[in-house]
Amino acid sequence: MSLGLCHLHPECFEFPAYVTEQRENAVCLDRSFFYPGGGGQLPDRGVLRWATGQAEVIDIKSIDGKVWHVLNREDLPTHKVVGIVDKSFRLMMCQLHTDLHILNAIVFKHFRGALVTGVQMAEDGTARVDFDLPQVASADLRVLESEVNSVIEAGLPVRELFMPLDVALAEPGLIRSRSVAPPPQADGGVRIIEIEGLDRQACGGTHLTSTSDSAFIRILKIENKGQRNRRVRIRLDA
Ligand SMILES: [Zn+2]
Q: 28, 114, 170, 232: least buried by Cβ within 10 Å?
């Protein structure tokens, strides 16, 4: 995925833009600070306002390189709009996403390089992550909850950096998805998310800047999905 304005300006939740294309109940904008979804993270929600109306952004779809903002009405804006990103939804996704990095770093460390085979965040403040862990008992994963929460409490800085693909591929654990390496940027650089002193991994999502900006997590459930997969479900603690 290529980096968008949501990565370059994660603090921007309201922006002016122009409609460049319409179809059915969706519009393209000349610029957008909405996260379009991907890597298990849901697309941003929010609102578009224009001179004579407003609509909720209920989904975002990337089709043929264009980012379509799907609206909850069919009479669409044609000209200037103001986009408003739902800040609390984005921050919930940033918490879940950062916490999954922490969990996955701890699993990687304890279970000798166990890889992630799938991840999905949900709008209810839960998320699931699948690990390739054929020999591990559920109880051995459940105990990691307190270790994750210790990292959250420690307030470790989280930052992004870029490195060439060949360098990224040479560092064990950096590209942790079993089959899919995230595509590099146009300049060949791979985006890496670093949690200081804990973890570095390639990722295209949005994250917190400190682990202590997250609520603590609960491990809700551990399921066996096939012979090799262990699925861990987490929830942000209220
Ligand atoms: Zn990430």
A: 170
Same domain for 127 and 105: yes
Q: What distance in angstroms lies between residue 237's CA and the mean position of ligand 1's atoms? A: 20
Which of 31, 55, 85 marks a domain boundary?
Answer: 85
pLDDT digits (tens, 9 = 90+) for 97-125: 999 999 999 999 999 888 888 999 999 99
Q: How far is the CA of 40 from the centre of ligand 1 (A)?
A: 9
Ligand 1: centre distance to CA 47 (Å): 25
Mean pLDDT over residues 176-185, rounded? Answer: 61
Give the CATH number for residue 175.
3.30.980.10
- In terms of domains, do 47 and 124 share one? no
Number of helices and strands (H, E) in the chain?
A: 5, 13
Helical ranges in the chain per DSSP H:
5-8, 87-110, 138-142, 144-154, 165-170
Residue 135: which pLDDT band, with cuts at 50, 70 and 90? confident
Of 66, 85, 104, which one is at a domain's C-terminal end?
A: 85
Higher pLDDT pick, 205 / 1: 205
Once rounded to an integer, what is the mean pLDDT over residues 222-233? Answer: 91
CA 201 / ligand 1 centre spacing (Å):
8
Neighbour-count burial of 16, counting CB atoms closer than 10 A to its CB (0-12 exposed, 13-18 middle, 19+ buried): exposed
Beta carbons of 221 and 129 less than 8 angstroms apart: no
Listed residues: CB within 5 A of ion ligand 1 = 97, 203, 205
Range of the domain at 204: 90-236
